[in-house]
Write a structure and sequence with these properties.
Aspartate Aminotransferase, domain 1; seven-stranded mixed β-sheet; Aspartate Aminotransferase, domain 2; 17% strand; binds pyridoxal-5'-phosphate; alpha/beta
């Protein structure tokens, strides 16, 4: 099979000329991935941050089977179905009261793409066609053209850069520059040309699990609102309990105008994205003219099986035992941070909710494909831990069903890595 894989398959984010053979996984259960040799690996990053309840979790499997008996897939224009209706209602009920409309798409990138297009068309529809955007340095919002345009410009997207739309970037906030960033943002907002600002709230994922404060986010959103700039929260990574609350927005007082969700939405089983917004935005698309409607859609919009799985995910997350696990993971990780915060071998260590990240010291190179991260990757793989470092940042982002003992095992191996 691996030979056939090599011959026919083109993997994502992979330099095939130098990449090692991929793990050939034949089974997934709970936090474990079993390969063809029978070796069991802990899925330390929930398979790209999606699998929140563990693999092949019976209640989710049952929901899928039940839905399969009813509707497989149907067009979502001029037709609707109960899993999509119920899911839209339940998502809105989880969010602040302003959120009243759910638009379905396929993944995180499309959820973001939809938010960008809705924000721009909102201004066009109300006769004030603002077109400029603000994003944060280091951002990652996906790999479609709009999502790439508002992300960090780097070698991941260099060949396409001439075709990106212009974006104003604000710096990533740390304790030293927050006031300066707010001042610069205010200057840009004051021009009256900014249609929207997009943010990964409280933590930037792909740029290395970088965390920033609730106070800063509150101030920035408040400022944007003051100058009538739409705010998009990309909660594709931060949603569904990952940060210790249902969504990052539950940790601040201000509310955005759009929230983009995906990854854990279906418990990480089916691709599904949603862009949730307010009636104020929605009503600007209502008109006698078709051209004012949101003329966007995907063939698999609101796939019934994905929606039914997402409904079961919400039901599972409504149970206190999941939040007890999330809290326990959070405590265990924050204790590890306290233990190592002054460790001279580590440049930085941090945790938030169920995410732990650390950067190792002594390496200048922070390239995504750096040799150092390949070294850690291999060492941890020998210990049957499946990770994917982000540059010199190693992180843990596990399914919530992981046990204390399994986390202890991972942390013990991280300590070995510190001393390499
Ligand atoms: C914050 C954020 N937004 C968007 C995306 C893109 O999601 P997808 O890979 O499902 O297109 C990601 C993916 O990692 C992400 O972390």
């Amino acid at each position: 099979m691996l030979e056939i894989d090599k011959k026919y398959v083109w993997h994502p984010f992979t330099q095939h000329q130098t990449a090692d053979e991929p793990l050939y996984i034949v089974k997934s259960k709970g936090v474990y991935l079993t390969d063809i040799n029978g070796d069991k690996y802990i899925d330390c990053n929930s398979s790209w941050w999606v699998n929140i309840h563990g693999h092949n979790y019976h209640p989710l499997m049952k929901a899928i089977k039940n839905q399969l008996k009813k509707i497989d897939h149907i067009i979502f224009a001029d037709a609707t179905h109960s899993p999509a209706i119920k899911l839209a209602k339940q998502i809105c009920e989880l969010l602040p009261v302003e959120f009243q409309k759910v638009f379905y798409s396929d993944n995180g990138s499309t959820a973001v793409e939809v938010a960008i297009k809705m924000a721009l068309q909102y201004w066009s529809n109300i006769g004030n066609p603002k077109t400029e955007a603000i994003a944060m340095r280091g951002a990652y919002h996906g790999d479609t053209f709009g999502a790439m345009s508002i992300g960090e410009r780097n070698y991941f997207n260099k060949p396409f850069e001439p075709l990106f739309f212009d974006v104003h970037y604000i710096d990533f906030p740390d304790e030293t520059n927050e006031n300066q960033i707010l001042k610069e943002a205010e200057e840009k907002f004051k021009t009256g040309k900014i249609a929207f600002i997009i943010l990964e709230p409280l933590i930037q994922g792909a740029s290395g699990m970088r965390m920033y404060s609730c106070e800063f986010l509150n101030q920035l959103v408040r400022l944007a609102k003051k100058f009538d700039v739409l705010v998009i929260f990309d909660e594709v990574m931060t949603g569904w309990g990952r940060l210790g609350t249902w969504f990052a927005l539950h940790q601040i007082e201000e509310t955005p105008d759009f929230i983009c969700l995906s990854k854990g939405l279906t418990g990480g089983i089916f691709p599904l994205g949603v862009t949730v917004t307010t009636n104020q935005v929605y009503e600007s698309f209502l008109s006698q003219e078709t051209k004012n409607a949101f003329l966007h859609g995907h063939s698999f919009t609101a796939n019934p099986i994905a929606c039914a799985t997402a409904l079961k995910n919400i039901e599972l997350l409504n149970k206190p035992n999941v939040w007890k696990r999330i809290k326990s993971i959070e405590n265990q990780l924050s204790k590890f941070v306290s233990k190592h915060i002054t460790n001279p071998k580590i440049k930085a260590i941090r945790s938030k909710g169920t995410i732990l990240a650390f950067e190792l010291d002594g390496f200048e190179e922070t390239d995504y494909f750096s040799k150092n991260n390949q070294l850690y990757y291999k060492k941890l793989r020998e210990k049957k831990l499946f990770i994917r470092p982000l540059g010199n940042t190693i992180y843990l982002n596990p399914p919530y069903c992981i046990t204390k003992k399994e986390i202890d095992y991972i942390l013990k191996n991280f300590e070995i890595i510190f001393n390499l």
